[in-house]
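fyi for ur records
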Amino acid sequence: MSAGRRTLAIVTALASVGVALTVAAVVRQSDGTVAQVLSVDPGDGAALAAAPDAVTLRLSTGADSVLSHVTVRDNAGNAVNDGRVRTDGKTGLRQPVRLTGPGDYSVAYHITFSNGQDATGILRFSVGTGVPPQGIVDVPDPILDDADHAHGIDPLGATLLVIDGLVLVVVLALLLRRPARHRRAPAVSAASGHLDGSPDEPTGR
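which gave:
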């Protein structure tokens, strides 16, 4: 195989790997299943007699507890979260809370599912008032509310970036390689008809 064909084969193979990984990432991000929040406890509009120790979300599929956020606030806008959200079974999230008194509370959530999809929502419940929650104004955006809400680089995306960089480096290295020097054929002397650098043949027979 010539050097040119060998280089083309290597570049084609590397490009195929990159395409395959990209397709796998797309399939992962859109696997045809719509992920959603099935229920939240306490539910929207609930009037509780006793304060819960957590807000629990039931999901249609697994979620990333590191990238997901649930913020619970009282009617004055103060956060009453008691620690970070954590997984609850295979398809649930649990946000511990510490409610200090009766009143109306709001829950704002942003869930990042394991298949890459997202879901956001806001709901309200009351504790110890005997009536459903009243309108709560200025409920914080569940995505922008948490100061720690800074998503890192997706592991698969980071892997693809690294592979793309390696492919680029290899391709550039192949393109910058100096072609192999071929031995030039000896030139034929126009005057004598002999190869240059070779002794003249005797004229006698």
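The radius of gyration is 34 Å. thats all i got for now
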